[in-house]
Structure formats: C-alpha cells, structure tokens
Amino acid sequence: MGPGLLLLALISAAPSLGAASPQAVRNMAPKPFANGQGGPEIPPEIMSPFKRQDNAAKKAESVFEKMGFADVRRMAIKQSQEPGHAHMFNGFRLAGDFLHLASFVFLLLQFHRAKSCTGISLKSQELYLIVFLTRYMDIFWNFISLYNTMMKLLFISTTVYVIYMMREQLRMTRTAEPNGVKYSAAMIGGAILLALVYNDRIPDGSYFSAFTEIAWTFSIYLEAVAIVPQMEVLARAKVIKNLTANYIFALGAYRVFYLLNYAYRFSVDPVSSREFFIKAVGAIVQTGLYARFFMMYLDSKKQQGVSADVIINPKGIV
Asked: What gap in Å lies between CA 221 and CA 10, rounded to an integer?
C-alpha cells in the first residue's frame, strides 16, 4: 500500500477511532493564568492576596502622582541633563565656594583659640541654617556631582556645629542681641512673601516642584539679609577681633564672587532671566550690606597690618 492510500485509510477511519469533539478539545486545553498566559488555573484563595497588594500599589502610585512625588525622578534626570549646568563649576564659583569654606575656618579658629563667640551673631547663624536647609533639600534626588553634594553637606553640618557651640559650649560668652528675634521674624516673613510673589517655578508643574522652587527662591531672598543681625552686633562694637573680621570679610567676598559667577553663567549658559534676576538681586543686596565693612577692613589692614584687629568707624557698619 502506497503512502497516499495509507493516509486516505487513516482519515476515513478517524470517526471509528473515537475522535474528540470540539467541546472535548476545549476542555483539554490548558487553563490560562490569572495574568492571561497559558498554564494551570490558580485557585482564587491563593491569588486574592496578590490582587489586594496590586490594587494597594496602584492606589499608592496614584496618591504620589497627585502629590507630585512621581516627578522627583524626572526632575533629577532633567536637571542633571540641563545645558545650564555646562559651566556651573567655573573659576568664580570655585573661588566663592573656597572663600565660604575659609569663613568657616576663621570662625571655628576664633571659637577654639579664644574659647569665646563674642562678636558673632547667633541669629545670623540660625538664619543661614534655614537658608541651607531650604536650598539644599534637593540633595536627596538631584545629584549633579560629588563635589556639589559634599559642599552642601559641609555647609549644613558646619553651620549646625557652629550653632551647637554657641548655644552650649560658649553660651556664657555670647553677645546679647536685643533686636535679634525681631529682625529674624521680619526677614523670614518678608522672604516668604517675596518668594510667593516672585519665583522661578513652572506654571504647569506639580505641587512638589512648585514647593521646591519657592523654597529655593525663599533661601536666596533670606540669605541676602541674613547678615543684618551680625552687622547689628558689629555696629555696637568698637573693635572687631582679627579672626572675626577675617570671617566677615571672607563671607562677604564669597558673595562678590558668586555675583560674578551668576553674571558669567547668564552670558554662556541658557539660564532663565527670572532665575538670574533672583540670584543677582540677592547677591547685590548682600554685597551692598558688606560695603562699609569692606572699606573699614581694608583700611585697618593697610594701616596696622594683616594680623591687626579692625577699628570700627564711629558711623557704624551699616
């Protein structure tokens, strides 16, 4: 028997061999998994906890989306890839950062050598801590570089240490600040109001991104005037100790170089005009508050030497 006749015989004999009906074939097919893939059926009592977890995860994701936290990762990626970061670490910025660090060195040397914090405003230090905490909250999601992150941590931790020493170890030598609370409240309130009125937030952004932008703007406005309690303390003194004077001078010089940094960045990077205006105005106001002190500092050093104390002009600092 040839192959063709054999095949014909098998086909004709199929009904007599008990071929399965269509219903039987459907019953023999494997049951799908709960996710739609082929496989044995899983009992509902086993799948129920997983379904509840999946629903809870979807609800949590929806809540985070509404709150804006889902934008955090997108914000970090966007900010790290922005062309505006291309010239972030220029010579003016680095000079400003190291002058800022030098100001901390002079301040801590004064504390440890003299065992005194006389002439230093505690209120100014507390305002600076508020500045750093509100400006650097993005440290948890916006990684730009190791240098940038380390500087943020260093500024925060050093300011906390300075406040601790003034409140605990050196509290008996602290200079009285009769107007400190009044000045601090006025400056914080004013900075909040200005930040709400004029900021750099994106109109169609999430609530979270709006909050971080307003907090950053608030820190710029507050830093511009945070030195006022310190200047008020110096204005009541006749002589400023050398290390204290060096601290104030380095702190002011840091803002001068940051102002140059802002101008340079605006000329070479696609920085928004609103952001530049906020930064520049803050730096100009703060630099202006140091102007008379700079003149007295340089005059005293010129006449008496670099290690001399600074004599205060009878007209005061500001």
From this structure: 92
